[in-house]
Design goal:
The protein is an alpha/beta fold. It has one domain: P-loop containing nucleotide triphosphate hydrolases (Rossmann fold, 3-Layer(aba) Sandwich). It is built from 8 helices and 10 strands. It has helices spanning 45-53, 92-102, 107-120, 136-149, 166-183, 194-200, 226-229, 232-246, and strands at 2-12, 18-29, 34-38, 60-65, 68-69, 77-80, 154-158, 186-191, 203-208, 211-217. It is globular and about 50 Å long.
């Protein structure tokens, strides 16, 4: 269970202007849920996951994971960034093994885990390749294998597929859904893309001005093909999201549940 207890994050830009990244956010995320954070740029989505990762100091409130307040990064939370963060001086298998070795995992167990997750993401034959020899999509597979190999119960993803082409992005979305269903991990996934949220999420948190302004449960079967995404429920959710994304700061909108925010 993840709990945000009236979390506020303020920080300053390089020009000295204070920014309210999160404003008294209160929400819970049950174990094993796939949640997408959706909203316009600059409204707090990345601050939410960075705070949960322990990378963004809190100005007020607290974040608890399994009842324990977090105070910084920890092995119970893994993160995949939008930027390419794999080490260019390490081979693919060494990248996947890096966190395990840092934690002192025994060599045999480390090797077993690395080989398992390389196979799971389709990179077994590239185990000894260098990152510069891989495409962008393959490097993202390395990053995904790395966080799953470390076996953190909570995975945080900040627009990880944003820079990729449409076909590669869809392949990785399908891969991620398969791994999530296999492992039952909790995933908090930042996106600006409505279609991506409809494909991935069990629940969508709409973020605006540092606050959660709508909490939408997606009651859609999987796989979520075009027919599913054209269902009455999916269309209703899409329209609610589109309204949220089009609003000015002071406007009001009807949520997916019929309430105004």
């Amino acid at each position: 269970m993840i709990k945000f207890d009236d979390v506020t994050c303020r920080f300053r830009h390089s020009d000295g202007k204070e920014v309210m990244g999160l404003n008294k956010v209160a929400t819970t995320i049950p174990d094993g849920q796939f949640v997408c954070l959706l909203g316009r740029s600059g409204h707090g989505k990345s601050t939410f996951v960075r705070a949960l990762a322990g990378l963004q100091p809190l100005s007020a409130g607290q974040i608890l994971v399994d009842g324990k307040a977090i105070s910084g990064p920890g092995y119970d939370r893994g993160m995949v960034f939008q930027e390419d963060t794999i080490f260019p001086w390490l081979s693919v298998e060494a990248n996947v093994a890096f966190g395990l070795r840092a934690r002192g995992v025994a060599t045999a167990d480390c090797s077993r885990r690395v080989q398992h997750w390389l196979a799971a993401v389709g990179l077994t034959e590239f185990a000894r390749s260098w990152p510069k020899q891989l495409s962008g999509g393959m490097r993202k597979r390395v990053a995904i294998a790395t966080v799953f190999a470390n076996d953190a119960p909570v995975l945080l993803m900040d627009e990880p597929f944003g820079p990729l082409d449409y076909v590669t992005r869809r392949d990785l979305q399908d891969l991620l859904i398969g791994l999530w269903r296999e492992t039952g991990k909790t995933i908090v996934f930042v996106t600006h893309d409505i279609e991506e949220a409809l494909l991935l999420a069990e629940r969508i948190l709409m973020v605006r001005n540092g606050q959660i302004v709508d909490d939408i449960t997606l009651d859609l079967p999987r796989p979520r093909d075009e027919e599913v995404r054209a269902s009455r429920h999916a269309v209703k959710v899409t329209r609610a999201i589109q309204q949220h994304l089009a609003l000015d700061t002071g406007s009001r909108v009807q949520s997916a549940h019929g309430q105004q925010t």
